[in-house]
Structures
1.
Amino acid sequence: MILMMGSFLIFIISYLRERRKLINGFFFNVFLIFFFFEIIGILVQFEQHSIFSLMLLFIAVLLLFVLLFGVFGLIFFLFWNSRVVRKKESVSLANLLTFILASGLSVWWIFVIVVPSNALPKPIELILGIIPIITFYFLCGFFNYLSAAFVYQFPKPKYNQDFLVVLGSGLIDGDRVSPLLASRIDKAIEFYKKQVSATEKKAKLIFSGGQGSDEKISEGLAMANYARSKGISEDQFWIEDQSKTTYENMLFSKKLLSAAGMQDSQGLFFTNNYHVFRASLFAKAAGLCAQGVGAKTAFYFLPNALIREYIAIVMLRKKRHLFIVGLLAVAIIARIVLYYISKN
């Protein structure tokens, strides 16, 4: 109980100090682990009661099932999801991430589990043996990211915002907003109207997005056109049409606000739920005083999107991760060298 409450307190303190930190996901996961063991301890304490015995048995069977068949289930789900994404979306590297991951897990399963260890040369066996360690390292990081992104979106924003930034994304036929982008705009307009209704305060809408090489107009202008069709008038929004990245969305939106004398204002930015946490890191880096609101995303799109977001998060701290993977590589090379020395 002490460990559980202590870990929860650490998480709360860290979260209240700054929501936009990956370490919050780690602290939250530590709390969940201690909470899980606390529940197990309670069930064991009352095991003599039939209902608690059944619950304990159910947890044991569930854990056993996950250990035995979890990899199979994950591979099957990833292949299924990649098939759905290929049907509903364009074929691109970003949309093939679940397929690539499923293929990699399948190859790993064949070489590590199916193929007998004595059937492989010793160096290959040692190299393959390090893969689960690297996988576990990045898997822990992925779960920390998921938890940080999940708890980040808990607080409901207050109706006291000065501005609302909508982040752009690719256009259809070069001039029309996609359903994904429309969901962001709709979410911002919905909040705008609710704030006006609740407090009569009108926030300034900022549609932020430059023009891609395959686009006829800027994303900012396309979003503005869409907003007009939803009843938003010219005096209610600004267009930021120079940004090419999420960081530039935040930075150039801040410049617009500063030019209008709103440098000390606070607001929100709107994107899709899978993207909101990483976008919040860029808002922090750009010095934009804004928290994120996530619009809903179709379930089939989420696995690819979350994997892509995690890869982007890893790349933000690539030196740290390369250092750790490098240490593991040095360790396996040392094991191979020692193996050949011992043979001779």
Note: Residues 74-152+300-344 form one domain.
2.
Amino acid sequence: MALLLFLLLVAVVLGIIGVAAEGLGHLLIIGIVILVAALGLIAVRWSQRAGHRPIR
């Protein structure tokens, strides 16, 4: 969980720097890629957790 929150924080910071600083658009792209990777990890963990419910 801490890794996902860290990835989201890094993505937001890189995105803000990429938008605010002139000529650093590549940081925005890197931030978007990290954000997509973090959301993918969240989706994988969420789907794994949903599949392990005991049958009653």
Note: The helical segments are 2-20, 25-50.
3.
Amino acid sequence: MLGNQSSATEFYLLGFPGSKELHHLLFATFFFFYSVTLMGNMVIILIVCADKRLQSPMYFFLGHLSALEILVTSVIVPVMLWGLLLPGMQTISLAACVTQLFLYLSLGTTEFALLGAMAVDRYVAVCNPLRYNVIMNSRTCIWVVIVSWVFGFLFQIWPVYATFQLTFCKSNVVNNFFCDRGQLLKLSCNNTLFIEFILFLMAVFVLFGSLIPTIISYTYIISTILKIPSASGRRKAFSTCASHFTCVVIGYGSCLFLYVKPKQTQAADYNRVVSLMVSVVTPFLNPFIFTLRNDKVIEALWDGMKRCCQLFNN
């Protein structure tokens, strides 16, 4: 669509292949996932703020993680849903494309930093329970969250800036349902090998920089749990970490396949499937992961529902 010497001022999102009927089915499916994601994560935020039993570092971090999940999926899914309703390709301006990619990457980086901090929090809770309230005090928790957010947004400024300094002269059709960086690099007529290598190193730094403390923390946690003499004690100790560990496996597994590869311009179908995991499936699953295996959260939910029923009855 572009001349050989021109650069894109807008892009066309190719979205999903298939018939109009398939698009309507995908719209209904993803709209359901998005609605449940919003409601589930908002409920978690509300009960963490309202219930005194959940006023601890673990649930403070969980509330921020839920907020991040809402924002990550809201950056991608509404645009995707709108594209499924439109005939043909969806137009997105250069400014909107830059904004979407920057927010998506920044929020994702913040989430990984927070997951690493949550792993350390679980380590302190299991391995140093007597000093837990001293080490993980409210001031420390607030600073951890602030640093995670600031780091996430500052870290992604250069990668997004460098991506859009390229000249997009091959085409302006992005073979995905959002402004996917790998597909954008495919459209450039510049030599992208150097920037792809730098982006690979930065992705390794973010993912493994937060994964290493997680692995170390869980190594000590498992070692400590195995030393607990009673089966009920081991089960209780493990239950405090099971939700976070499950979230880590799903989140890191998806993003390792998507970003930690030297060649960023991966096949479009591969990127589309893994992007769906990151932006739709993982935010959808997290509320269930953190509620179904957590007795305190379940109790808080039941009490909240009872209070709501009483208010309606009165």
Note: Residues 94-127 form the longest helix (34 residues).
4.
Amino acid sequence: MRLDLLPRARRSRRLDLLAPALAFLAAVLIGGIAVAALGVPPGQAFLTYFVAPLSEVWSLQEVALKAAPLALIATGLAFCYRANLWNIGAEGQYVAGGLAGGWVAVAAHGSQGPTAWILPAMLLAGTCAGIAYAMIPALLRVRLGVSEILTSLMLVYVAQLLLDYMVRGPLRDPQGYNFPQSVSFDDAARLPLLMAGESLHAGVLIGLVGIGLAALVLTRTLFGFEVRTVGASPRAARFAGFSDARLTLAVFAISGGAAGLAGICEVAGRIGQLQPEISPGYGFTAIIVAFLGRLSPPGILLAALVIALTTIGGEGAQIDLKLPLDLTRAFQGLLLGLVLGADVLTRYHVRIVPGGAGAKGIP
């Protein structure tokens, strides 16, 4: 016996909209069973995970601050994935952007002249570094046919080791008692706060602007049509004259630039200096966010908020309920699997083929 997936003749728009919500409810139900098995009341865990982070101003800000880089990186990745190209190295591009922009801040530390140029230069350097780093796997694919999956992933570790070397060597604070970190950035090299005395900074607005621009490009421009066409039907795209090589370079540039911009926003925002670790894994988590959001900028924004909410809630559950933080990561992976499974069932219906028929090759 085998299972065949047959395309549905007509797809229900209502079911398409309900599928992610049903998948989320199923994930919560399965998570509740796992929590109960660990001896914690599921209702209490639900309140800690999903309600408590929305009940305080500081926790709402934390959700926004975690969601912004995830959404920005995932939106850039959506361009690649829609074109059937697989950039798995957004984490490395994020680190490269943070390192390049942070180097500008360190070089300008203590400047006596005008300082208004520092922050724009940092953002530009971070974006350009992300683009340049993403061009390596893109060019290797276009020129040599090397798998972008392997090269982009391996370059993550190169970027992380380079950052570690720089903060322990050339960029280390000479007055930092040999701690592996740069000098603290000047005020002119920090993103402005949106509310005095709070932690919310302008990086959140940059993320929202990036999502809006991505939605506009994907839905209202010829380039967005080209991306969608190549992803849906590569042969038709080639027949229409679209260039695979040019599109590969373009979508990797967008993806890398978004990741690099997110990296420098994090360094110039929350962190305020270069350290050996400037990312809690945003580049990898953004892959989950991109697919949870169905590669659509509005969906990605919603998915980023959900992932950020569960992350903050998971940290609270670790403190208040003594639940392992790995449970949160397992829940996020489970949610992704259920959403993708729900999408499959909305597009296809399952047919059971008896073993004998399958063995004879009968369709």
Note: The CA atoms of residues 88 and 291 lie 13 Å apart.
